[in-house]
Amino acid sequence: MSRTDRGPFRVAMVLTGTAGGIGGHVAAVVPRLAELGLTIRIWCPADVATGPLAAVGVPVAPLSRLSGIRSADIVHSHGYKASALSAPIVRSSRVPMVTTWHNDIAAAGAARLVGATLRLISAAGSTLVLGVSPDLVQAARRLGASAELLPVPAAQLAAATQDRDPVRDRLGVAGSDVLVITVARLAPQKNLGLLLDIASRTGTGPGSPRYLIVGDGPERPMLQQRINAEQLPVRLLGHRDDIPDLLGAADLALNTSTWEGSSLAVQETLQAGVGLVITDVGGNRALLGDAVAWIRPDDPAGAAEKIRRLAADPVARAGLAAAGLRRAAGWPGQQEIAVELADRYRQVRDRERSVRTGQCGRPPRFPGSASRGPDS
């Protein structure tokens, strides 16, 4: 659609947090939607407004004033909680709502029950669910929602600012060592116990893999305790701002998660030209195809063997890195996703107007998004 086709179009963006790539996605897409002629306003917690979204250049309102979304042409909620909070308001005001499901629900316990309840409310209250991975799309459809795939792209990774060898020297990595990097929040979903299981099986002698975990989170004390107790060749670096430099220094990357949707860290790894070993879970297969080395999340012995083989074969590592670069080159960019969203908004709004005036029957499957997603 052209800018004039869209006309004045008010979009209310609602989010309750920034984890799981939500904050980065909203911060990237909002300015692009505004450039396309849409009028955007964000509702979010105060710490989000002064943090990741501080520079997006659109008005931001607190969740205490969420009733203001009634004046929008369409509401776009990000995540189950934001969608559930918005659902009664959009229902009473008859404003259509698009919801992006960015993450799966928790694996067990009370958190899973809460997540399942919020997901059910979201599915019932959304005119259209956009899942970042095929399994989320299928989950929404099983709950009766109209749902399509729309992946969340990472921004183009910044270039490394330092050469490989000085970075490795500062990290204490010898030239003959194979450096395996993991960029992840230290949380249960990332399954970092599997990484430690792998590290315990791949040796400690010269030329053996050395593992770096970049990120922070609640499991750091537990992981550090085990690393110390077992004297594992693993180092926790905590939060870092030099991810491009660290990726440039790595020989391999490893992701051990029990679930990923459209992981930004994974996308950045392939953009950096680092061969990736990753669990075959969630949306990984659709995102990555045959451009990575696959492992199972419950098979540390098999995963360790794959790491050992790649560590001993620089030609295979180079081939894996090249495959990743080719795959990354085919992903949609931020601008493409913004245009896709703008099209979705208008389709949803126009469809809702037609339903209200009795011009059409059951809600449609919205075409287009699925074809834009990787391997959809």
What does this structure look like?
This is Glycosyltransferase family 4 protein. Residues 20-147 form the Glycosyltransferase subfamily 4-like N-terminal domain. Residues 348-376 are annotated as: Disordered. It comes from Microlunatus elymi. Keywords: Glycosyltransferase, Transferase. It is elongated and about 70 Å long. The chain has 376 residues and is an alpha/beta fold. The protein folds into 2 domains: 3-153 and 333-372, Glycogen Phosphorylase B (Rossmann fold); 164-329, 3-Layer(aba) Sandwich (Rossmann fold), CATH 3.40.50.2000. A 7-stranded parallel β-sheet has the order 3-2-1-4-5-6-7, with helices on both faces. The protein has a 6-stranded parallel β-sheet with strand order 10-9-8-11-12-13, with helices on both faces. It is 44% helix and 16% strand. Mean pLDDT is 91; it is low at 1-6 and 361-376. It has 16 helices and 13 strands.
> How many domains, in number, for the residues?
2
User: In one word, what is the shape?
Assistant: elongated
Oligomeric composition of the shown chains: single chain
| Beta-strand percentage range | 15-25%
H/E element sequence: HEHEHEEHEHEHEHEHEHEHEHEHEHHHH
- Amino- and carboxy-terminal Cα gap: 23 Å
Mean pLDDT: 91
In CATH, what is the homologous superfamily of the largest domain? Glycogen Phosphorylase B
Q: Could you say which structural class the secondary elements and strand pairing correspond to?
A: alpha/beta
Alpha plus pi helix count: 16
Number of strands: 13
Major sheet details = 7 strands, parallel
CATH level-1 class of the largest domain = Alpha Beta
Runs with pLDDT <50, length 5+? 1-6, 361-376
Helical content stands at 40-55%
User: Under CATH, the topology of the largest domain is which?
Assistant: Rossmann fold
